[in-house]
Amino acid sequence: MLECRNIQKHYGGVAALKGVNWKLLPGEVHALCGENGAGKSTLARILCGITAPDDGEILLEGHAVNWPGPQAARQAGLGIILQELDLFAHLSIAENLAIGNARLEDGAWVSPSALNDAAHPLLRSVGLELDPTLLLERLSVSQWQLVAIARVLGLDAKIIFMDEPTSALTDDAVERLFGLIRQLKERGVAIVYVSHKMNEIFRICDRVSVMRDGEMIATATCAATSIDQVIQQMVGRVIATTRREKLSGTGQTLLEAHEISTRKLRQVSFTLSRGEILGVAGLVGSGRSEVGRVLFGISPITDGTITLEGNLYEPYDPHDAVAQGIALVPEDRQKEGLIPGMSIRQNTTLASLPKYSRSSWISRAEEVAASTEALADCRTKFADQELPIRSLSGGNQQKVLIGKWLLTHPKICFFDDPTRGIDIGAKDDIYRLLAELAGKGLGIIWVSSELPELLANAHRILVLHEGRCLGILDAATATQEDIMRLATGHHAARS
Amino acid sequence: MISRVFARIFLVLFGVGLIAGCTSQSKPYRYLVVFSQCNNSEPYRAAQNAAMQKLWEEQPDVRLVVMDAQQDSVRQIAQIETAIRMKPQLLIVAPNERAPLTEVMKQAMEAHIPVLCLERDIVEPYYTSWIRVDNRAIGRIIGQYVLDYLTKKYGEPRGNIVEIAGLKGVEGETNRKLGAHDIWDAYPKIKTVTEAVANWSQSLAKDRMTEILSAVPQIDVVYGRNDPMAMGAYLAAREQGRDKEMIFVGIDGLAGEAGGVRKVQEGLLAATCIYPLCVDKAVEIGTKILRDPTFDPDKVYTISSELVTSANAATVYK
Amino acid sequence: MIDKFWNQLKHHGQPFIGLVLILILGTLLSPRATDGTIVFLSPGNLTDVLLQQTEIGIIALAMTFVIIGAGIDLSVGSVLAFSACVSALMMMVWNPHGPTMLQIGVAISASLLGGALIGALNGLVITRIRLQPFVMTLAMMIGVRGFTKWLTGNVNVDLGFGAIPSGQFAELFSSKAFAISLWFILAIVAHLLLTRTVYGRYLRAIGENERAAAYTGLPVRGVRLAAYIGCGTLAALAGLIHAARSHQGNPNDGVGYELDAIAAVVIGGTALAGGRGSIVGTVTGTLVLGLLTNVLRLHMVDSNLELMIKAVIIIAAVWLQRRSTGVHGDL
Q1: Pick from A170, A112, A182, A113: which is nearest to A146 by CA?
Q2: Interface predicted TM-score (ipTM) of this complex, two decimals
Q3: CATH topology classification for B31-127
Q4: For the whole prediction, is pTM greater than 0.95?
Q5: How many domains, in total, are found in chain C?
Q6: What residues have CB less than 8 Å from B20, skipping those under 6 apart?
Q7: Using one digit for the tens of pLDDT, what is the confidence trace for A451-475?
Q8: How far is C266 from chain A (nearest CA, A)?
Q9: Nearest to B52 by CA among B34, B38, B29
Q10: B79 — contact with chain C (CB < 8 Å)?
Q11: CB-based contact (8 Å) between B11 and chain C?
């Protein structure tokens, strides 16, 4: 159905794609895997007309095509859901769904009611029960992703590219997506599934292609290969995916949350001990990030108390929270974590700057020393501290952010989906890092949508459902089904 | 990088344009005379500029440069500072305000540049000569005219007067007011009902007068401290159909179609007092300073003026 | 060492190129004085330009901070007039027998304090009530101007001359040595504050990505407030110099100064969006504007043409800067 031959692409002096040959069969679900930087996103964008290749040709149903832009590709029946969701925060859900949709854009006059009517079935199919007139900026990251998926569904595409579609989704939403994919497959739509997640790929895809360093390494049917083999092809080396060894021994109680209520949470209680990793699981919108915002002083508490080391903890704002030893690594690196124009060093020392200064005058030597140490502790890969932080990969940026908080010597660190959009090698590093931190006596709260990740690394797992805590499971004995059951609102079968 | 190239080309063209736009200075001259005018847009001052140009042009070895400060004292200070750097042989200044310009004219004197202070004055006498008109005397002339008119109208000295004032703090404004009041204050029934400030501008005077007309029912005389302001008041009154109720007097009496003398001829203004441009005298003294090294100018030169009414307007008009 | 120098030139390159260009143009086009010297380059003329730009220059220093913090302050022109009038009033009108040196000191302090309070009001409303900086400072621009006119009865307040204290004040504050040195000392302090201190780093982080800065625990409101207070105070200081130079407190002065200051900042390479900028750039921008005006004035170019040319320069400068990216210059 879709074929490309000898596609090449250069960015500056770096070769992103080095002569890629690839075929997509009609009606198949085809996975594209590779580490970050392997070229999968670039290939997907070229095939959808968003970027033009430097060399090579693309054939659609046997005919060579040359798209001047994404509009042309869209009209030819190709749709793409990008990793950096190209939605508009200031527009409503319905308006976002309508953009690029030729049917709805017919004629100069667009009626809001027509948009909203068109939006309902799309939203239902992805399981979002929201008012289509809501502005997008009010939604969470996971909800954005669902809207992006809904939009592509509205385009009647024959070939759909999905670039990391489940990176912000919880298992529940993932199931619904898979159902959708199966439906589309029955209608003859071919789907290209670009992802890191092996489990998903092997569940839903027919064939899998592996890319590495801009080259297409291998293509096979999922039946004929295995996760380990694919990973090996991706990375070029063997990596174990078994459960890691957890450091035992949790110490005294560090934090005690008692019946906390906020706008989103309802009477949530839990404790956190020194050296403990507490995982937080739940569906989209269940309030996981809200827990972090409460601890960090961003969301006000309407009821309940928190005690930190025995004393009442009522943070006034993040500044206050930091002073009392709390750290927050937020969900959205770009918008809430980094200062993109600043250097790696400057970002690393930003939270702890007063320590290297005397009456506001910064001591360059002290600052550089601290930053070097923090970057090394986190095993961050970088060329020069003075380069802008934009020059780092996602994984290394995350490590810088973690290093930033380490320099404040916090007592408690809240990580909100720290491994989202990060390749396997870097993920591994971060797991190791968090375990080390726990070993040093920090209390860690870890929100994640990847249940295997939590089960492998956390001591206990707090499960939230619509703002309520339905259970705190022991990670050593719990299963994914146990977590899922609580997350969807069913109480535990065993007592 | 293309825009970089464009930007460079643009800058070069700009530079060339700048060069082309500036007048060349190849004409040889022996004397540089700089005239710092406070505001070209007043008709009185435009007339001064025209007279300056005409008179100095008669001396081919003199280059005259006129600077316009647009009624901004800060700008005039900067312009005079620049003028000093040009090292002129003569500097003539019509100061915008008294206090701000004092310091910089002192600097000009300290740089050994002869300074003529034209018509308005400054706080301290930092100038070679001040060529002035006796504004107080003019005020008295107008005051007397108004007194005579009111006495004739009512059989006794009484009436309502609206005064339209120029820029406060300028000597001319102060003295023209004082002069008139020298005459009127003796008669308690001659009252100044209100005084509005219009900064010598005709349009501002018209606005102010419009406001006053709605507030004051009975007006006999409008005393505009210069002709444009008196005219502005006249136009406002005419718009409201009340121009026949009162007379309008001004000061300046400039020549030409737009000047006060013509207006008196046409009957729009009742009277005006010729306010000499002072330029003739300035050029006369200035020329002597340039050419005669032994010349010792007086500190102050006073020029007399003349009342213009419908009686003598035709003969005075130029 | 040489490497560092070239690095600086690259980061702050554009404004410097403009400065050099103006200097060259000015020299080439300069009229000759009657004794043959190049007027443009004469030390008298160059120091004239510096003195003429001192008020705008000082305001622009503080404006740089506000703009880097992703804000703007349109009220500075009115604050300048306010400060000039308050000090003139305190020295001359509310002191029937003429002020003593002590009272002059009080007048100066009162003006500066007034400016600081206006800045604080701007800052508090902007950071607490979250009113947009443009709107709030625009309102203050109008309000402070009205207040100043009311205070003076819309009349200029002249300062004294000669040996009396108010005359002394005027002499000192308008002297080239004092005013220009003051400007440059403030510029050095501002530069160090911006590049070497915790405050400066915080300001740039907040200006670039306020959300991330807040999530890093930075005192966002306090930093912004300080920038506005600084702006108000420095505008008041400029007002004192202005009063000395024009020898009066004029409630109608300072109009448009905020735009000149912003123009200087922008030409110097600071982006209005916030996060990046430098004091060196601002000073360069101020000099470019001042020298340009000087070149035009030396050629008796009509003042209205002057304004049009200024507009062209501003557009050109910002256009040239769009290409430059880079890390926050930290030196």
Answers
A1: A170
A2: 0.81
A3: Rossmann fold (3.40.50)
A4: no
A5: 1
A6: none
A7: 778 888 888 899 988 888 888 888 8
A8: 18
A9: B34
A10: yes
A11: yes
